[in-house]
Write a structure and sequence with these properties.
Layout: E1 2-7, H1 10-17, H2 19-27, H3 34-41, H4 45-57, E2 61-69, E3 72-79, E4 81-86, H5 107-131, H6 149-170
Parallel strand pairs: 1-4
Antiparallel strand pairs: 2-3
Helix pairs in contact: 2-4, 3-4
């Protein structure tokens, strides 16, 4: 079982979004059969088996082993990944295009960049798996607390200048055998409240500004 799998097939995406099948995928982090799963999810064995077949057809569940019990063969299956991400490629006709309206201060443009990142890295993972090669990537994840909006703006400006300097230093358009790499640098507010918690009342005082 791999840690994360990217779903780019529309049919597989639809199957994974079914609440019952999504729950089965979560339970199948550990191998199980229709019989053992039925007790866990509160469905009949026949219904669980129906859902498992659908998941297996789309590569979301795989057979681990078959056990003979009297006249019945029990199929032990497990999820093919511990977690799944649905690629924008599954909705190709309406997938966001970051080239349509680039704007460094737009939250929606940042979302379009993130969507492209998922789509491209997902495709690269598929290719590298077929070639049995490791995919070379690098990422930094951190959190910074700004004292003011002015500090945030200054940080963004300095970060941009530093990145541009590094790009100019290492980019070689004519390097023989060189390979282009995608670089994305993003900054956004951290989530500080539950998604279903009401937003602060503007009358209670100013909050950190957001951008779109």
């Amino acid at each position: 079982m791999i840690d994360v799998a990217v779903i780019d097939d529309p049919a597989a995406a639809g199957v994974s979004l079914d609440p019952v099948r999504a729950r089965l995928l979560a339970v199948l982090a550990e191998p199980g059969s229709a019989t053992t799963l039925a007790a866990q999810v509160g469905l009949s064995r026949q219904k669980v088996n129906y859902h498992l077949r659908a998941l297996e057809r789309h590569g979301l569940v795989e057979l681990v082993e078959e056990r003979r019990k009297g006249n019945v063969t029990e199929r032990i299956v497990r999820a093919t990944a511990a977690s799944y991400v649905i690629s924008p490629a599954a909705l190709a006709s309406v997938a966001p295009d970051p080239g349509r309206a680039p704007d460094q201060l737009s939250a929606r443009w940042l979302l379009a960049l993130a969507a492209r990142l998922v789509r491209e890295v997902g495709e690269l993972l598929t290719r590298s798996a077929k070639a049995r090669q490791r995919l070379a990537t690098f990422a930094v994840d951190g959190e910074i607390r700004f004292a003011s909006a002015a500090d945030r703006a200054a940080f963004a400006e300095e970060l941009g200048a530093s990145v541009n300097h590094l790009v100019a230093k290492y980019h070689d358009e004519k390097a023989a055998g060189g390979r282009p790499h995608r670089l994305i640098v993003a900054l956004h507010p951290s989530l500080t409240r539950a998604a279903d918690e009401p937003a602060p009342d503007p009358a209670q005082g100013p909050t950190a500004p957001t951008e779109e």
